[in-house]
Amino acid sequence: MTITDIQNKISEEFAVFDDWIDKYNLLVEMGKDLPLIDARYKTNNHLISGCQSKVWLHAAYEDGKVIFTADSDAVITRGIISLLIRMYSGQKPEDILNSDLSFLDDIGLKDQLSPNRSNGLLSMIKQMKLYAQVFKLKSDTESNH
Amino acid sequence: MFDLEAIREQFPALHQKVYNKPLVYFDNAATTHKPLAIIERISHYYRCENSNIHRGVHYLSQQATEAFEEARRFAASMINAVKAHEIIFTKGATEAINLAAHSFGRMRMKPGSSILVTAMEHHSNLVPWQQLCLEYNGKLLVTPMDELGQIDLQAYTQLLDQQPVIVAITHTSNALGTINPVKTMIRMAHDRNIPVLVDGAQAIAHTEIDVQDLDCDFFAFSAHKAYGPMGAGLLYGKEKWLEAMPPYQFGGEMVDSVSFDKTTFNVLPFKFEAGTPNVEAVLGMETALRFIRNTGYEAIATHEKELLDYATAQLSQIPGIRFFGQAPEKASVISFLISDVHPFDLGTLLDKMGIAVRTGHHCAQPVMDFFNIPGTVRASFAVYNTTHEIDTFVAAVKKAALMLS
Q1: Which of B149, B273, B288, B400 pairs as cysteine with B178 (C-beta 3.0–4.6 A)?
Q2: B positions 266-285 inside 8 Å of A (CB)
């Protein structure tokens, strides 16, 4: 599935609920499906700054695709990061870099995007795109040789 | 006669829905909402009085100057300062403490000097002193607290014996709610000729302050935590100190005469008020202090104590709840965690149920380190909160805890 397809699917899942608390309940549930980071990567090196809760993120590059794993000490943050991983993990770096995130409006997470939010959704997205950028540069360099 | 409904009527921001739920605002230790009188006072200033103060010969400037100086006189009377010029207007408690640290602190510090604070200081009454110590290769001494969040007075005595150049203590802890025995602590410091600054940011909205009775050397607070506007606060200082202290910032207003060779400085309080001040916020602060005086500290304290006791009793019934800050003398602040639920999770879900609380370290990271926790959920009450809101809050906490377990 493309990133847009996945975003549409996520939007549909959230659209079922009217009450904000139910949307967040879904987020909590999604957190349980998070592809967990290998324990050996759960170090300060993989910690994303800018979050009130801790988020560890790891990225690998396999067959032209970025594979993300993560964990958090807060349940809702785990839900948010699992949503991002569902969207980005297994995608090509350029698709990650070109992705549009306006779907976050639809599912009601837009308020989490303002720079003062303590959950660090912005920091997570930034870090994921940074990884994509690095992998893209690496593969561009290699294909030039 | 305390009329809660009449008080709530004065606060327009309370009467709104967030996420389709009636707002329950329990983040008052961060900032309170503002009564209509303050909103109207600020509006009136810009509609009718706006002009730069202290320098114009024209009518409006004189009116604004008079209003500004009346605000100073009122603030002085509110905390029982001896003289109006012992009140230095600042943009808040943080700037007030920075002023004291930079001016008074530098005047007293010598290489190797020490400064004494407590383990429960807000960063604003910790970092300025810590940085000053670093600058002078000095030592920051910290009075410890116990598990209930009470100051260890015996340790305090011993630390005073190290002759710190100043003691800086919070009147009321923002993270734990502890009300410190500041009067006793000041007397103990004065017995050793050590001056004391009191951070009153969390006190001024809740309890009567008499700087002469306390005998503190400095007292700082922000208007916005006491129903007033943001961007105004004050530093009270004893006249003898303020006279001796060098200016903190330089510019217009604070000067007497200026040539390219030298500058002589204005008298108190102006030598500490460089530049055009936040006039409308200072006027709003006066209105806020009048609101508090009219409501009455006794009535406020009685109501807030009722809210604190009721909320503590209701929350205590939740399995796995842990309270941080259980000193017998406590302000209307409840810091808590439930089992191993992350405070961020709890706060986020409460928000979605219309309830505003604070989560995190509350700008008091050493306090969190002491309890070895990442942060807490903090509910803090003001004069306009109700027991009905507490019921809503407790039900929401239970629901959130269930979702997260």
Answers
A1: B149
A2: none
